[in-house]
Amino acid sequence: MQHLYQQKQIVQNTENQIQREIQYYIYQDLENALCQLGQLEETIEQLEYQKDKSYLPIAMNKVILQANLSFGIHFDQYSQHNKTSGNFLYQCKTRAKSIFEEALNKKIIKNTHPKVKEICNFYLQNIFSQKNMQQYEELHLEKVQIESQFNQQALEKVIWGTQIVDKQLKQLQNQEYKPPTGQEIFEKIKKSKKHCEEQLKINFQNDLAQEQKQDQNKLRIQQEEYKKQTLKLQSVNQNSKKIKNQNQDLSQQNKINKVEDSRRTQYPDDNQKGAKQRNKTQGTKGQYQIIQKQK
């Protein structure tokens, strides 16, 4: 009897251990996925006005790799525990999907950029799907223009992260696992986005300052060019106005000449009388000059 009780206790402990591990993997991965998506959106916003966007595909690939890792985790959990703990796994996946959708509905993850939408759809339709996971699926990485370099700090972070996971899994053998609430995950997303924003400003502030300086120089050149064009236009307008006034004077003189010519044509006698009068005046003046000489 005692032996039977011990056997049942062992089985129960094993089931509890499996359930704790399922919870840990599903919810820890959910938290990582949402934080990574939040950081990607923050990166997209911060780099929107940066001319050099070569870092953006790297940031996207970081989240794509996380999504592929998430699928691998769910695939592994399904392969190991679907037969023995399938119902519990289903409950965890359903709750995780609900929290993921709540993050989208509350705009904690805005889900507006095409690449973010693609990744979110991959989670909703493939990772959180209740269909049988018969084969591994993954998202394709973005092409990166920057030449890859070995980063010792990144490697150390990966090793450190692996050690943390192992430590936490060992702790689950002796204690209960309390799944995080949606609100707790949302708070971590906000903190993660804030940290990402600060890091981006530090890393790109020199580039941004340089771009702002270049923009200021371009603006100054544009202002100088505008000033030159304005002065040139004013000079053209003045010359045009001067020519217009000259044309108006010439037109007025032509009108006067036409009127004078028309009057002469209409009144020829007045013209002859005027001529005779001028001749007569000139003749009288000539006779007077002769008389004066004779005297």
Give an overview in words.
By secondary structure, this protein is mainly alpha-helical. The chain has helices spanning 2-46, 56-105, 114-127, 152-171, 182-266, 268-294. The protein has a domain at 2-144 and 152-214. The chain contains six helices and no strands. Helix 1 crosses helix 2. It is rod-shaped, with a radius of gyration of 47 Å. Residues 288-295 have low confidence and may be disordered.
What tags apply to this protein structure?
295 residues, mainly alpha, disordered C terminus
Order of helices and strands: HHHHHH
Q: Report the count of strand segments.
A: 0
Tally of individual helices = 6
Percent of residues in helices:
over 70%
Rounded to an integer in angstroms, the radius of gyration calculated over CA atoms is 47 Å
- Characterize the main sheet: none
Estimate what percentage of residues fall within beta strands: under 5%
* General shape: rod-shaped
Structural class: mainly alpha
Task: Calculate the terminal CA-CA distance, rounded to whole Å.
Answer: 183 Å
Low-confidence stretches: 288-295
Query: What is the overall pLDDT average?
Result: 79
Sum this structure up briefly.
The protein is mostly helical. 82% of the residues lie in helices and 0% in strands.
